[in-house]
Amino acid sequence: MDSMVELLNGVTMPQLGLGVWRAEAGEETERAVLAALEAGYRSIDTASLYKNEKSVGQAIRSSGIPREEVFVTTKVWNSEQGYESTIASFHNSLRQLEMDYVDLFLVHWPVVDKYKETYRAIEDLYVQGKIKAIGVSNFQIHHLEDLMNVCRIKPMVNQVELHPLLTQKKLLAFCRKEGIQLESWRPLMNGNLDVLLLAELAKKYGKTPAQIALRWQLQLGIVTIPKSVRPERIRENASLYDFALEPEDIVRIDALNENRRFGADPDHIDF
Description:
Elements: E1 4-6, E2 12-14, E3 18-19, H1 27-38, E4 43-45, H2 53-63, E5 71-76, H3 83-97, E6 102-107, H4 115-127, E7 131-137, H5 141-148, E8 157-161, H6 169-178, E9 181-185, H7 196-205, H8 209-219, E10 223-224, H9 231-238, H10 247-254
Parallel strand pairs: 3-4, 4-5, 5-6, 6-7, 7-8, 8-9, 9-10
Antiparallel strand pairs: 1-2
C-alpha cells in the first residue's frame, strides 16, 4: 500500500487511490473515504463536478491522519474552464475541502479553445505554492503535444480511461517518453469484468478478476484509482501486494485491447 511513483517535480504520489465519482455527498462519500484510509489508502481523487469535495475533506479530518500524509486530487470542470474561472473554481474547491492546498489539480477534459488558458491558470496557482503537482485528464497525444508547445510547466500527470479493453499503449509510451505519469480512471471497466482471461488468471493466482486487472496496471507503472463506496470492495481492491503477475500474463492481458471505451471519447465531448 505504500507503493509510490515520483512525478516530474519530485513529488511522490501513491500508486493506488480511491476514486469517488458518483459517490453521494455526505454519509456515503465520508464512509467510503474513511474505509479507504483505514485500509491503508493514502490517495483520494475527487473533482468539482462530483459535488462531494466537502465530504472528502470532512472524512480526511475525521480519520485523524495528518493532512500531509493524504494525497488529494481534484479537477476543474468544463464549464469552469478559462483563466479567471479556473482560479475561482480552484479556490472554491479549497473551500469545499477546507484545505490550504491540494496535492494534484487537473484539467478535467480538453475543452477546445479553453484548455490552454485553463492550464495557464493552474501553472500560476502552482507557482504560488497552492498546488503540489499539476496535470491534465482525458488528454490524447495530440492534446498533450498542443499544450506542451505553449506551457511553461509540463503536465506531471495525465488521468485517462484505461483498462484491459482499452490499454492505451501508444499514449502510455508517449507519456513514459515525456516523463508524464499515466493514471487510470474506470480501471474496472464499469464492472464489466466478465472476461474469460481475467477469470482464468483469477483462478491461477487465487484472486478476483478485479484484482487481476488492477495488479496488471500496477505492474505497468500506472497509477490507478478504482471507485467504490462499499468497504468490503474497497479493501478487496487494495489486496494487490501479495502476488505478482508473470510477464507472459501481462502480455496476454495487453492483447485483450479492443479500444473500447465505457466513458466519453476525449475527441468528441459536448459537455
